[in-house]
Structure formats: C-alpha cells, structure tokens
Amino acid sequence: MDRFLTACAEGGDWQEIVSLCLAKLGPIPPQANLGFIYVTDALAGQLGHIADRLRRTTDVDDWVGTVGLGICCDDHEYYDAPAAAVMVGTFPPDSYRVFTTLQRDLGNLRVHQEWLDDSQFHPAVVHGDPRAAATPQLIELLAEGIPGIYLVGGLSSSQSTFPQLANHLCEGGLSGVVFSSAVPVVTTLTQGCSPIGPVHRVTEARQNVVATLDDRPALEVFKEEIGEVLARDLGRAAGYIFVGRPVEGSDTGDYMVRNLLGIDPGSGQLVIGDSITTGGPLMFCRRDGASAWEDLDRALGSIKRRANAPILGALYISCLGRGRYLFGDNSEELQRVQQALGEVPLVGFFANGEIAHDKLYGYTGVLTLFLQPNA
Question: Which of 104, 107, 165, 347 would suit a FRET pair with 173, their CA atoms being 20 to 30 Å apart?
C-alpha cells in the first residue's frame, strides 16, 4: 500500500490555496478513499467549499478535519495567514466509518453497530467543539460506549467560527472517523508541562474552586511549591504555573494539565479550569521548555520502537500553547518529529485541548502513525 500524500499552501484566497494543494498532491491513486483537511481560522468559513472542491477533483469521497489557529504539514507549521493542509490516504476496503456530530449520545455511531461489532479494536480520530460544555463527558461516553475504541484528536481552535468536517460541516460536539482493526496504528502523548511537587489530596472543593489540599489552605500549599520569588508576586505565575490532575490508576504517571484561573488571597482558595472533586488527587506543574523537549524525545523514541511496520502517514495534534510558543518560531517541534520518524507524510493542527484514549488533555502533543497493514 502506498504512502499517504500530503500538501499544504498558504496565502491568497481559498480557491488559489486548493489549486496549489492539488498540484502538490499530484496524481491520486484510484484506491485512495479518505482525506484529512486542516485549515487556519482565516479559512474557517470556507472549509465546506474546500472539501467540496477536493472531493470533486480527487474522487476521494470521505473527508474529515477542522480549523486551528495553527496547522502543520510534514515539517512546517503555519500561523496567522490563510492556509490549508491536506492528507489523502488509501485504507483497506470497509475499514472505517465517518460519523457526524455526537452531542448528547452515540446515536450517529450506533447506526454502524453491526460493523462495530465485527472488530475488537477501533482507533478513532475525533474533533471536538471547545464551546460545548459536554465535550469532556462526550469523550468519556464515546470511550466507554464503544468496546475497544481508542480516541485521538483535539478541540478546534479559532478566533471566528469552529467548523468540523465529517463529510459535511458540523459543530457543537464530537465528529470524526472510526477505524476497524484492519487499520494498524500506534500513538503516543507528550507533555508540555512538568510537575513541580508531590501529588496532593483535595480535602475541600466545590465545582472548580479548591479550598484545601491535605487539610491545609490550597494557596498556602501552592506558595510553598512555586518558590519564594513567585509567591511574593503571584501575578508572575500566570501562564507559567498550572494544575495537574493525575490519572488515577495510570502506571505511567499520566496527568491532565488544567489552567489556574484565579487566586483568592483572602480565603486561600484556588480557581481551576475544571470541575474538581473532593478526595481526588491534584498537583502543580510548570511550563518548561527543557523538560518538554526531553519528553517529546522520549515519546518519539517510544512510538518509533513500537512502529513495527512501514509508516504510511501521521497525524499530529499539538496544543496551542506548544508550537512557536514553547519550541520556537521556526517549526522546531514539527522538525523534531520528522527527524525522529524519517520524514513521513504528516498533517495536523494546534488545538484548544488534545484527546488521547478517553481523556481531554492540555499542553500536550498527540502523535498517531498509520502503519502498513499485514506487513
């Protein structure tokens, strides 16, 4: 089976960008059957037109994708200008199903129940709406409701509209494509924030407000861990110190990063960008370029060892807080990925939150490799 085809173009209007992408893609194999499209938010309103033209011109019927404030193609990142990244792949016959928006239940997937029951493992690429409060619960519902499913993807990011593409435009929940076990994949997650102290137990919390940790005022514990300099000027902690929610039961020390939204010096309470349950674990993290590079290299080494067949193509969903903000302005993050993998066809976007397995993460990168079947 052939390696996937990728193309990206920026500048000008959407018609010009699509024409450039089509020229770069070159001849499309007649067996090609699924494409991925990611566009910057300058083209958010044209995503449907872009997909329609690609479908007509390539004869590839099925397309999924979304919008990002940044997108990536092969070893380059694109921001602040109209741009589109396209990947076209050939997948085994009857090996996937595209599904449109899940908003409250799994009805749009249940129509494929007989097909789902024929396979024990289902990798799935999903895109979500960051404005929908139920999105984290939908991720868990999907992961729990379809036996053997493993989710990868991210939440759309934009300064305008938030379209998703699942053959048709949709929004408001989760959409994407689910594969059968005939599509071999390997995936990995890399963290962009590193822990700065031990795991604490939340001893008093309501909704997203943490009052006490280990039976002490939360702010008191927070100040101890961030150090004297930041503790004297808590405003300097913004955008540098975050909250980590350890994944209970994980044997790899996995954790989900959440924003620290507010500090109340009077009550000693912390406001977190997530609902917090009394009795659960919590720790503090910092954005750390050096440790982020180290963890990216660890993740790349791990996925390369597990890729036991030729790589046909790749998807990389990285956080908006990574990319140029953490690794530099010259696409260093994508270049490191390609250096490790040997320059594979790759597209992706910079997300408002990253999805891996059954969780919604932040400040992470989620890399998925599609491998040669039966190799």
Answer: 347
184 and 101 fall within a common domain: yes
Listed residues 286, 308, 327: the one ending a domain: 286
- Do the bridges between strand 168-170 and strand 311-319 make them parallel or antiparallel, or are there none, so unpaired? unpaired
pLDDT in tens, 197-245: 899 999 999 999 999 999 999 999 999 998 888 888 888 787 789 999 9
Whether 10 contacts 350, CB under 8 Å: no
Quick one: which of 238, 200, 217 has its CA closest to 321? 238
| Tally of domains within the chain | 2
Radius of gyration, alpha carbons of the chain: 21
Transcribe 25-40 into DSSP letters. Answer: H-SPPTT--EEEEEEE
CATH code (residue 247) = 2.40.30
Q: In terms of Cα–Cα distance, which of 317, 295, 300, 314 is closest to 362?
A: 317
Secondary structure (3-state) at 76: strand
